[in-house]
Amino acid sequence: MRCTRLLRQFQTLKPEIKTASFPGPLSQSISKGISQYQEDRSHQFAVDYSKSSGNYIVDADGNTLLDAFAQVCFMGYYCLILTNPASIAIGYNNPSLIELAKSDEFITAAINRPALGNFPPSNWKQILEDGLLKKTPKGLEQLFTAMCGSCANESAYKAAFMAYRDRHHGSGFSEEDLKSCMQNAAPGSPDYCILSFESAFHGRLFGSLSTTRSKAIHKVGVPAFDWPQVAWPSVKYPYEDHIDHNKAAEAKSLDLVKQTIREHKHKKPVAALVVEPIQSEGGDNHASANFFKGLREITKEEGVYMIVDEVQTGFGATGSFWAHDKWQLETPPDMVTFSKKAQAAGFYHNFEMRPSLPYRNFNTWMGDPIRALQAREMISYIDKHGLVKHTEDVGDYIYKSLKTLSENTLIENTRGFKQGTFISFDMPTPAQRDLVVSQMRARGVNIGGCGERAVRLRPMLIFGKAEADILLNTLHSVIHRL
Questions:
Q1: A single Gene Ontology molecular function, please (predicted)?
Q2: Structural domain count of the chain
């Protein structure tokens, strides 16, 4: 009840499409103007953020959409549509964040943008302890702050390579090490690799891009590291209805992980394995807690660091603050990366992952204090209003309704059971998926897709059952008209 009352305080909008087509003419005109100086083909629509509120996003033409996508990327089959994945947690123009932005603390941090690695503000430790460090994953007492999800993963990869090298060769460096690294040659630049999964998405920078394998458009024309990949388990959905098949599929994938690590041990050692709790851009692919427990056992046995990429799943979206909390690992992963709903970015890690010397894992900004302040405020807000449990309950409600809807419609492969609002389903063809997305937007509900055929939901943590009913009723109408 307290969450319901809270949401009503600043949500007075409802879905309303005023233009004859969507996006409307003003939105299209704005994008055309931007195209004179920047790429605009990934624009969905121009937003009037000053009028957007809570779960509702208002475009430049005055159209109001229920946002069940929260600034998520969507790459359609016939067109490319990309934004930032699931990066709004507690609603547009949340009053608590507005008050934070008015504070002297926020203003000082914003206008004096400190280079955190060299000149941290005197209150930096307190900002972290009151915010991001309150949600430290179990066993990971260290925190590296960064600018975005891609650079969080890039920095985690660097940490893994440095720690792996020091574990096997000690923390000192020979003259040959120092000279050869300047030529991008061994032994100073060792030939290590990161193991990832097919259909994974870990970012668009050079290291992270070499572990991203969800769509060719992300990578085509860009040089990449020759790093190995393993197939994601070929599970069937709904996951809970195919337990025996899925258990066997996961066992097969685990065997391939172990085999790949051992095959590379003497030619290109695997320093780390990176994995998403739910493969997001690659199609919302799921696996069981036992699968991830198996990955942790293999990485420990083989001396490989385990990086859990929670850039999209972190901060409550799956009905637990961190998705990997549900795995109940006996030994924690070595690193957990985050961004998106946190607004801030970086990775939590154990002490071994700290570099042996200053400037080895470093950049000018090392994150951004105002984003850390936002994260602090959001953590307080999430806890105060019980939004993680709220998201779990709303997710259960949506999932049950979608599974029922799938019994007599074209909806296939419903997934997201007990995963909060991290819910998706497939349509029979990519074109039908894109049609569902466009028709939903034309009716005032913003959703999107991933993979080839998946429709996915990424609502904010404040998304309630009233909003879920609007979403489900609109989807029911669209699906039955296909």
A1: 4-aminobutyrate:2-oxoglutarate transaminase activity
A2: 2
Residues 325 and 407 in one domain: no
Question: Is the pLDDT higher at 12 or at 339?
Answer: 339
Tell me phi and psi for residue 345, to 5 degrees: -150, 165
Q: What are phi and psi of 114, to 5 degrees?
A: -80, 145
Global pTM reads: 0.95
Residue 72 — pLDDT band, cuts 50, 70, 90? low
Task: Give me the mean pLDDT over the 253-259 stretch.
Answer: 98
Domain range for 22 is 2-94+390-480
Q: Are residues 170 and 119 in the same domain?
A: yes
Q: Which of 258, 340, 341, 403 is catalytic?
A: 340
Residue 348, strand partner residues? 143, 336
CATH number of the domain that 30 lies in? 3.90.1150.10
Known catalytic residue at 340: yes
Domain of 124, CATH number, reads 3.40.640.10
Count how many residues are written for the chain. 482
The answer as to whether 34 is a domain residue is yes
Of 19, 17, 110, 97, the residue nearest 54 (C-alpha): 97
From the list 61, 284, 309, 426, the catalytic residue is 309
Query: Does residue 451 share a domain with residue 357?
Result: no
Give the three-state DSSP class for 35.
Answer: coil
Percent of the chain with pLDDT over 70: 95
Within-domain flag for 352: yes
pLDDT of residue 87: 85
Q: How confident is the model at residue 70 (pLDDT cuts 50, 70, 90)?
A: confident
Residue (of 140, 270, 158, 163) closest to 208 by Cα position: 158
Would strands 424-426 and 412-415 be described as parallel, antiparallel, or unpaired? Answer: antiparallel
Is 177 a catalytic site residue?
Answer: no
Give the integer Cα–Cα distance in Å for 244 and 293: 17
Cα separation, 165 vs 471, in Å, equals 50
364 among known catalytic residues: yes
Residue 339 lies in a domain: yes
pLDDT at position 7 over 90: no
Q: What is the pLDDT of residues 328-365, one digit of tens each?
A: 999 999 999 999 999 999 999 999 999 999 999 999 99
Tell me: do 201 and 344 sit in the same domain.
yes
Active-site residue (options: 4, 331, 364, 404):
364
| Per-chain mean pLDDT for the chain | 94
Is residue 324 located within the same domain as residue 395?
no
Query: What string of H, E and C letters represents the secondary structure of 317-356?
Result: CCCCCCHHHHHCCCCCCCEEEECHHHCCEEEEECHHHCCC
Q: Is residue 99 part of a domain?
A: no
